[in-house]
């Protein structure tokens, strides 16, 4: 018996026409989308959790606003540039002004990862904070953000899975299809949620947070290792990926996994030194 789920949610939260009397924007229609709302919610929840971390470890809460700016800029710029260079370089290098048109869509999580690492490196230098202290605590929030982002992708009926005969497959009606696909976005959202819980429990109930590089290393291995596995259920995003042994998302995940393994090794080999410094 087929129990496929017919999926066709409205990606727009609500529509509101702005009164004509309002200068400049009068007459326009305000139509926020679920994807944008979930993206913003990921930032708000992450900021709230980081506030708890700062309070728990008696860090100066006044620098958190600046940290938020670095994080948002690193995420958005990295994700946009990453998509343009990793997935459609020929087009965007020929039309560089289009890179700025972020409203047209196109964000890459691997680019966001690079952007976050770079932005927090700059932040740590400016505010004289330990880079690993920041990233070890941000690791669990990065995993949590994957839950919100992939939920937004599901509502948008994008980054879909391959066709499936499984009873829990989704028929993405917005794509004009009448057959079921793997709800890969849902798989990823669930996986990132589990990874977030694992990292949170390690931070709260073990000494892992005091071992420089341990949590971020483990986070990289879990998040991007899981990404490599889940990509086998997903359709390729661009044509050049067809026929590849591994798709672009998997190839880009490999360096993150290797980097995570290196950080775990570094953390374990420097364990006594770190514990002495605490």
Explain this structure to me?
With 278 residues, the protein is mostly helical. The chain contains nine helices and four strands, in the order βββαααααβαααα. The protein has a two-stranded parallel ribbon with strand order 1-4. Helix 4 packs antiparallel against helix 5 (131-155) and helix 6 (184-205) runs antiparallel to helix 7. The longest helix has 25 residues, at 131-155. It is globular and about 55 Å long. The termini are far apart.
Features:
mainly alpha; 4 strands; two-stranded antiparallel ribbon; 278 residues; two-stranded parallel ribbon
Quick structural gist:
The protein is mainly alpha-helical.
> What does the largest sheet look like?
2 strands, parallel
Distance between the termini: 59 Å
Inertia-based shape? globular
Proportion of strand residues: under 5%
Task: Return the average pLDDT rounded to an integer.
Answer: 86
Query: Major sheet: order of its strands?
Result: 1-4
What is the β-strand count? 4
Class by SSE composition: mainly alpha
Low-confidence stretches: none
> What is the ordering of alpha helices and beta strands?
EEEHHHHHEHHHH
């Amino acid at each position: 018996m087929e129990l496929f789920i017919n999926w066709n949610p409205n990606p727009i939260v609500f529509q509101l026409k702005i009164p004509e009397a309002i200068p400049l924007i009068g007459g326009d229609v305000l139509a926020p989308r679920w994807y944008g709302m979930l993206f913003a919610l990921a930032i708000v929840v992450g900021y709230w959790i980081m506030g708890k971390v700062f309070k728990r470890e008696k860090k100066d809460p006044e620098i958190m606003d600046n940290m938020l700016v670095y994080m948002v800029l690193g995420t958005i710029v990295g994700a946009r540039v990453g998509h343009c260079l990793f997935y459609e370089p020929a087009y965007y290098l020929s039309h560089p002004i289009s890179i700025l048109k972020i409203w047209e869509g196109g964000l890459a999580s691997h680019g966001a990862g690079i952007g976050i690492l770079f932005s927090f490196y700059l932040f740590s230098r400016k505010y004289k904070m330990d880079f690993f202290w920041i990233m070890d605590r941000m690791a669990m929030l990065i995993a949590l953000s994957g839950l919100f982002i992939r939920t937004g992708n599901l509502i948008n009926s994008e980054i879909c899975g391959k066709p499936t005969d499984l009873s829990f497959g989704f028929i993405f009606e917005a794509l004009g299809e009448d057959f079921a696909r793997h709800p890969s976005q849902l798989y990823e959202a669930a996986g990132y949620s589990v990874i977030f819980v694992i990292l949170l429990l390690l931070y709260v109930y073990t000494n892992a947070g005091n071992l420089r590089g341990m949590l971020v290393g483990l986070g990289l291995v879990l998040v991007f290792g899981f990404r490599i596995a889940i990509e086998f259920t997903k359709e390729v995003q661009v044509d050049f990926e067809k026929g590849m042994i591994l798709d672009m998302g998997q190839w880009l995940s490999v360096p993150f996994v290797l980097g995570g393994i290196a950080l775990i090794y570094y953390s374990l080999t420097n364990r006594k030194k770190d514990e002495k410094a605490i």
